[in-house]
TrEMBL record:
One of its GO terms (molecular function) is hydrolase activity. It holds the Pfam family Abhydrolase_1. It comes from Pelodictyon luteolum. It comes from the Bacteria. PANTHER family: MONOACYLGLYCEROL LIPASE. Keywords: Hydrolase. InterPro entries: AB_hydrolase_1, AB_hydrolase_fold, AB_hydrolase_sf. Residues 26-269 form the AB hydrolase-1 domain. Coiled coil: none annotated. This is Alpha/beta hydrolase.
């Protein structure tokens, strides 16, 4: 458990590194909307014997403390804080980063990949697809219909049944450990309302999604597209579109891991299969720079 002082405040992070001389490749995890890094713990426990794993709570979530001057809850702002953390830990400059982004975190992961291509071994995007005009309009309509502002104003109701179960069960298709059902609700309810509202809105902004659509295809490293086909949070068709477009437009290795019976949280719903997909991708990418 560690904190780093950065421009936006005190960022909480967990690093499984062995200290000076740990030259292993690094897996950096980016979290979804209003979620702390705690949900990555099961996969980190499985990977950390071989890889140095780094997770952190983005501004507005978990144990990270925002400074009063932290006004920019944007893709660029979140990427700035991640870059500062990487600089503090000396992880930029040598090619050793495997970057994994989930949901909204896929947008920030993409920004980091394209800022620091010289440090990148591979990228993985989990359930954060790209959308053509008609699907984008539908997706935008569904989320706006959810009334983000109202949801944040009354978010405390999700501490109680039946709202708690409704909140979690919409995100998953297979059972997850009760501990993580509680984690997700706690993280959402205790998240900074300003940050959560801003992120919820930029994640559905057509201009921002359009930029992400372009930038994700351009990532200059092998890319793994992970999709839970039973995802009811972000339409899985978007991940298929990203995979297809990368195959058409990028010379870099592009792979897909489809989990037919998983929802929005494959790292918890199908943990062994998710771990295997990551390991296979990391190994394939490492061999290419070998």
């Amino acid at each position: 458990m560690s904190f780093a002082d950065i421009t936006r405040g005190k960022i909480y992070y967990e690093d499984t590194g062995w200290g000076v001389g740990d030259d292993r490749e690094v897996v950096l995890f980016f979290n979804g909307w209003s979620i702390s890094a705690r949900y990555w713990i099961p996969v980190i426990d499985r990977l950390s014997s071989q890889y140095r794993c780094l997770s952190f709570d983005q501004s507005g979530t978990g144990r990270t403390v925002c400074s009063p001057s932290c006004l920019s809850f944007s893709v660029e702002g979140f990427a700035d804080e991640a870059s500062e953390l990487l600089v503090r830990l000396g992880l930029l400059g040598s090619r050793k980063l495997h970057i994994v982004g989930h949901s909204m975190g896929g947008m920030i992961a993409t920004e980091i990949c394209n800022r620091h291509p010289e440090s990148l071994v591979s990228a993985t995007i989990v359930n954060c697809g790209i959308f053509d005009d008609e699907l984008l309009k539908s997706f935008h309509h569904v989320l706006v219909g959810g009334m983000i502002d109202v949801a944040m104003l009354f978010k405390w109701v999700f501490l109680f049944e039946p709202f708690k179960s409704l909140f979690i069960d919409r995100a998953i298709s297979r059972p997850i450990d009760q501990k993580y059902r509680t984690v997700f609700v706690e993280d959402f309810v205790t998240s900074d309302t300003r940050a959560a509202t801003a992120v919820g809105k930029f994640a559905i902004d057509p201009q921002i999604i359009g930029r992400y659509t372009s930038e994700a295809v351009k990532i200059c490293a092998p890319l793994l597209c992970v999709v839970g086909m039973a995802d009811r949070t972000i339409p899985p068709e978007g991940m298929q579109t990203l995979y297809n477009r990368r195959i058409e437009q990028s010379a870099f290795l592009t792979r897909q891991a489809r989990f037919d019976h998983a929802g929005h949280l494959p790292m918890l719903e199908v943990l062994p299969e998710f771990e295997l997909a990551l390991r296979s991708h990391f190994c394939a990418a490492s061999r290419l720079i070998g």
